[in-house]
């Protein structure tokens, strides 16, 4: 739609977020760029969060990168794109000749969720394969757990929650992280569903739930096994479902027997009576839906935690029927779209796990001589950020593609400005939403910004790899969408607005055909045995055992050098990882009991210390916080420091994920003379 002075397009949010909001974007020279919610969007229905407006403001922001920058005499100076492309091409050739393609590090993640952004990976694959991260910074432990249990990561349509009689928000806060799920939850509550929140922090969603269960951080899997113990003890199983669709019950029952209610109460802080109530609710009031968050698997035992939660639904037959199941993520889109990445057989990358990436790079042979960063900000997002800075400094030449001068860009040798979601077209297919939609180009790229698709295509041509980049961006989108032509979904149809994909069923696993070796839900798995050394979920085998063996005698003052308190570093409400972060410093949240112990009040400053680092934060005191927990949301300072300076890399049990919530901390009141 075009008017005389204004352009209006339906578009989409590019962030890797559960909601994947639909936008209506307006642009005129007098009013600039404005974003509002798309009222015709099937799921988000006209409501968008503050991050939508923040993205629009970035387009014309003074912080926007305007042209390529090259480090020179300790600072960054402007250069032309011709110089930048020639320099980067020469650095790639030089690295290939001297140490081979593994001497190039490509660090990427999902700062922009568009499918064309994955052409960055295709470029480095076309070089023969480079050094890159393996595993996950976010959800890998739980993701791999569900692949082991069910043979895939699938979930039913959002609207199915309205048919549930019990909805458990386990480590998840839709009121903050999944805003458009809330109306469906309230609809379910209105017709009689019981909503239960299980979380160490009394999150915002607890305001509309009927029950809030405050569990010790990292003990969610222990609680799940304790509930399973009671269900098995009382015989509250759905025996028909178990006989037909569950493998490994006997081995699982033997493991669950170890989690007697008294032991579980000690480890989780949940009384025996409450455990029994939860067991009865899950097994006797059906159907049950669990919305599982990612915080509960950000421990070294995180995969086993989700396996234990999956098992509760398997034991009680709460899978494959309307209103039942677990919402963790989707694999549907990847199975139905063409990929822009190359076939694995055509290249050979060297991969290192995310939790230990800095350590591995520091001793890599051949060494990393050239680093290229896209869609991410590793100096802030990766654990052990103090080591990251040291390793980063030693890499001879570093390149960052971004919209603003992030901390990683600030410490790079070449910085390349890229387009926002309002300056080019891309396909958005998220890991949580059944909707396909496009970001739309509503303004020409500002200043000298270029899209990654154009940049990497030109680099490929310069390096003689043009055959690997045969398409224009529009042709790439047509290629990705080609398998959906049978459903009538094309690039042209998506330009008219978002579409719900017909290949995502209303109910996940309705045919009860699980993609595991046994064809059933595997409570005992040979894959788990091979990968982890134990076939059955045991949340105490890793991480959680140490995390839970804290001194629960609250009145005892810890001695110097001890780190007695749980440390949780969640996303703040208005930011996503390092995007849209404020730089006025950090804010921590503690319970009044912990505040009293250290003579702290709201507005004071406190030093938060772990065995790996320390930082200063402003104090807020709240009854909502677990009494032995320090909640320190991701934040930043003008100097570029983030919360991950407090954290070291550790291994998760499955998925090579990053256990960001594994650290323990000490508090000290900051006194100014």
Task: Walk me through this protein's architecture.
By secondary structure, the protein is α/β, with parallel strands linked by helices. Among the domains are: 7-60; 140-331 and 516-532, 3-Layer(aba) Sandwich (Dimethylsulfoxide Reductase, domain 2); 553-669, Barwin-like endoglucanases, CATH 2.40.40. It has 23 helices and 28 strands. The strands form 7 sheets. A 7-stranded mixed sheet has the order 26-22-28-24-25-23-27. Strands 5-4-17-16-15-6 form a 6-stranded mixed sheet. A 5-stranded parallel sheet has the order 10-9-8-12-13. Strand 16, helix 17 (407-410) and strand 17 form a beta-alpha-beta unit. Helix 4 packs parallel to helix 12. It is globular. It starts with 6 loop residues before the first strand and ends with a strand. The relative contact order is 0.17. The model is unreliable at 543-560 and 574-581 (pLDDT under 50).
